């Protein structure tokens, strides 16, 4: 019998109460990982219950914590180790996105993105790395984005800046820990339908947010947004031993959205 790819692995997943984090947790449970679901929102318990209903053997603990607070993340890593003995994989997924014209974007909005999107991943990595070193290795998967490093839309200055920064963090940590068996990779997602994207659609077209979502799909060669579990499959692969020689990689998962050079050539 083929062993599920994450059997015996312990993973901590941030931002797991909704959207992609919930999708990642669902796929990790499917593949047999023991998981600690971390979120700012107490809804994380409801998400964990949903996953337990789908996978009754799933081993899950939940922690309400703010990734922007290093002490809370050190405590969350401690809870994971207390529950399951170690940490093999960290999915640094929690992130925020608010839109505003650059010339009117308040410094507080900029700093909010830096605190959650950059320092939150930094804190999560610093909280888990000592356990991974003690354990002889591990894998970190960071949720960057195509936004910032490859493409950007107006209003995304703070978000794009912070997501591009995560590519630099990924590469440095990958080099720094390569000889100690910790792999570090990042995902670069186009669009998935999550509460974050539904909120962006409302901000972009308050009268008809659904048309804003449909318009995203029109620009994607595959003509649809990603499902959170499709992103979960990538996180599962990068976290698993199947990716044992992959480190420092930026993996685009976007249905081809960053590929077209024009919207007009070769269409007839
Ligand atoms: N949805 C997309 O299309 C898309 C595209 C590219 C990258 N991403 C990235 O993927 C990640 C998840 O996105 P999503 O669409 O699922 O977002 P979402 O807003 O739908 O869900 C994010 C979850 O993270 C939690 N969270 C927010 N701030 C937190 C904090 N400070 N501490 C702990 N938890 C916190 C929220 O409570 C929520 O449960 C983000 O890093 C985002 O930038 C998303």
Show the helix and strand layout:
Elements: E1 10-14, H1 19-30, E2 34-39, H2 44-54, E3 59-64, H3 70-84, E4 89-92, H4 107-135, E5 138-143, H5 157-177, E6 182-189, H6 195-204, H7 209-218, H8 228-239, E7 250-253
Parallel strand pairs: 1-2, 1-4, 2-3, 4-5, 5-6, 6-7
Helix pairs in contact: 1-2, 1-8, 3-4, 4-5, 6-7
Bound molecules: nicotinamide-adenine-dinucleotide.
Notes on the protein architecture:
By secondary structure, the chain is α/β, with parallel strands linked by helices. The chain has two domains: 10-190 and 227-251, NAD(P)-binding Rossmann-like Domain (Rossmann fold), CATH 3.40.50; 191-225, no CATH class. The chain is built from eight helices and seven strands, in the order E-H-E-H-E-H-E-H-E-H-E-H-H-H-E. The chain has helices at 19-30, 44-54, 70-84, 107-135, 157-177, 195-204, 209-218, 228-239, and strands at 10-14, 34-39, 59-64, 89-92, 138-143, 182-189, 250-253. The chain has a seven-stranded parallel β-sheet, sandwiched between helices. Strand 2, helix 2 (44-54) and strand 3 form a beta-alpha-beta unit. Helix 1 runs parallel beside helix 2 and helix 6 (195-204) packs across helix 7 (209-218). It is globular, with a radius of gyration of 18 Å. 45% of the residues are buried. The model has no long low-confidence stretch (mean pLDDT 97). Bound molecules: nicotinamide-adenine-dinucleotide (NAD). Nicotinamide-adenine-dinucleotide (NAD) binds at residues 14-15, 17-21, 39-41, 66-68, 93-97, 116, 120, 143, 145, 189, 191-192, 194-197. Residues 14-15, 17-21, 39-41, 66-68, 93-97, 116, 120, 143, 145, 189, 191-192, 194-197 line the site of nicotinamide-adenine-dinucleotide. Belongs to the short-chain dehydrogenases/reductases (SDR) family. Pfam families: adh_short_C2 (PF13561). Keywords: Oxidoreductase.
């Amino acid at each position: 019998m083929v062993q599920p790819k994450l059997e015996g692995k312990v993973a901590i997943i941030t931002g797991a109460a909704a959207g992609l984090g919930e999708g990642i947790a669902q796929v990790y449970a499917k593949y047999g990982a023991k998981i600690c679901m971390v979120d700012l929102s107490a809804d994380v318990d409801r998400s964990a219950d949903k996953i337990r209903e789908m996978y009754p053997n799933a081993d899950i603990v939940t922690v309400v914590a703010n990734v922007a607070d290093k002490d809370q993340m050190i405590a969350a890593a401690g809870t994971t180790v207390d529950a399951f003995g170690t940490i093999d994989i960290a999915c640094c997924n929690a992130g925020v996105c608010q839109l505003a014209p650059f010339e009117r974007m308040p410094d507080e909005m900029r700093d909010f993105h830096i605190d959650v999107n950059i320092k939150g991943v930094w804190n999560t990595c610093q909280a888990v790395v000592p356990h991974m070193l003690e354990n002889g290795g591990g894998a970190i998967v960071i949720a960057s984005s195509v936004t910032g490093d490859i493409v950007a839309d107006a209003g995304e200055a703070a978000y794009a800046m912070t997501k591009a920064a995560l590519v630099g963090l990924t590469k440095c940590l990958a080099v720094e820990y390569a000889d100690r068996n910790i792999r570090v990779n990042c995902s670069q997602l186009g669009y998935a339908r999550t509460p974050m994207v539904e909120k962006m659609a409302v901000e972009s077209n308050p009268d008809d947010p659904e048309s804003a979502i449909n318009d995203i799909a029109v620009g994607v060669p595959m003509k649809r947004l990603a499902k959170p579990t499709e992103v979960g499959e990538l996180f599962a692969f990068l976290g698993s031993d199947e990716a044992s020689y992959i480190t420092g990689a930026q993996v685009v998962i976007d249905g081809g959205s960053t590929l077209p050079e024009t919207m007009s050539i070769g269409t007839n």
